[in-house]
């Protein structure tokens, strides 16, 4: 199979001054025939990585290798984060990679934490890679140890996102690392790591709501179908009780406030699907109980409402007012 590499992560994968673009450009010059894709999930958290690995594999794959930059999200600072939960997420990621036939490599990206760290998620990744002999490049503490805190700070434009120079320096280290990863024999395929308790999956709403129009939006190289709500609400009824981790939606310039009510007439949530950065469209997730999920038979999504208090950094709000709903992120017990 032709080697095909997916780079997946959060805002450090999205930003144009980060490591992803110069890495892709240098790999194109040094690894003939390699195809590289990236999926940047913005300000989301590692709980969404397993379903998005599947979505990326279905839409863009198959992949031979996946580079994961997943330790810089705010997950490490959340009071409900803990070792068992972090290990559970990593176990689901590994099992998902086995299922899509891809070999993993992990990148630890530098971040200066401004809030107390509850869970050393990067440390869990280090431990996992050591135990299973998985490739790991440390451009967090290891980068600081090599270049010094002052120099690394000069390569950052905030607490984690690099300047263009910083992203280029990261790419200088990352490209030879990835060349070694691409050349090494497969490791993950032959492993039998401890299985997760739950499998994190995505349930397509476009098939469940056939009377609603749907549109395909391409957010950071990942085309995906979204149900369009305009002048109406919907009731999502899968016909059985599901444990739902979250509801995917889009932030976009025509967004507003939307009420989301699990199992009506239970208490609802008010979700705002526009923010000051919505001059560009990107993926958001409404999590239920910090992605631990809740059991629900139905989900009522209300008609979009105006959000006049939201101003965009660039451009103007668009109309007609509408909402875009992506898949439900579900939690299914691992089959015994």
Automatic annotation (TrEMBL):
InterPro entries: SGNH_hydro_sf
Superkingdom in the source lineage: Bacteria
Gene3D superfamilies, per database record: SGNH hydrolase
Protein name: SGNH/GDSL hydrolase family protein
Lineage of source species: Bacteria, Pseudomonadati, Pseudomonadota, Alphaproteobacteria, Rhodobacterales
């Amino acid at each position: 199979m032709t080697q095909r590499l997916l780079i997946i992560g959060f805002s450090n994968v999205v930003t144009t001054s980060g490591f992803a673009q110069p890495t892709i450009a240098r790999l194109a010059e040094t690894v003939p025939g390699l195809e590289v894709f990236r999926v940047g999930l913005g300000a989301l958290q590692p709980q969404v990585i397993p379903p998005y690995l599947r979505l990326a594999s279905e839409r863009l794959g198959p992949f031979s290798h996946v580079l994961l930059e997943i330790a810089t999200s705010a997950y490490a600072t959340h009071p409900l984060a803990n070792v068992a939960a972090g290990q559970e997420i990593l176990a689901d990621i590994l099992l998902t990679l086995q299922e899509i036939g891809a070999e993993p490599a992990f990148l630890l990206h530098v971040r200066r934490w401004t809030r107390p760290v509850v869970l050393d998620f990067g440390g869990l990744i280090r431990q996992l890679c050591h135990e299973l002999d998985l490739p790991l490049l440390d451009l967090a503490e290891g980068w600081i140890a090599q270049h010094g805190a002052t120099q690394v700070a000069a390569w950052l434009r905030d607490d984690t996102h690099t300047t263009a120079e910083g992203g280029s320096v990261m790419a200088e280290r990352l490209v030879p690392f990835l060349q070694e990863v691409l050349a090494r024999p497969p490791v993950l395929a032959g492993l039998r790591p401890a299985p997760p308790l739950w499998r994190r999956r995505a349930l397509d709403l476009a098939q469940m709501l056939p009377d609603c129009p749907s549109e395909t939006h391409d957010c950071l190289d990942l085309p995906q179908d979204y149900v369009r709500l305009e002048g109406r609400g919907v009731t999502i009824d899968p016909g059985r009780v599901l444990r739902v981790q979250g509801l995917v939606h889009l932030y976009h310039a025509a967004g507003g406030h939307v009420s989301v009510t699990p199992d009506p007439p239970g208490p609802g949530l008010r979700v705002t699907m526009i923010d000051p950065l919505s001059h560009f469209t990107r993926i958001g997730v409404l999590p239920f109980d910090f992605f631990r999920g809740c059991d629900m038979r139905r989900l009522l999504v209300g008609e979009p409402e105006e959000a006049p208090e939201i101003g965009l950094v660039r451009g103007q709000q668009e109309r007609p007012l509408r909402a875009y709903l992506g898949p439900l992120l579900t939690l299914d017990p691992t089959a015994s």
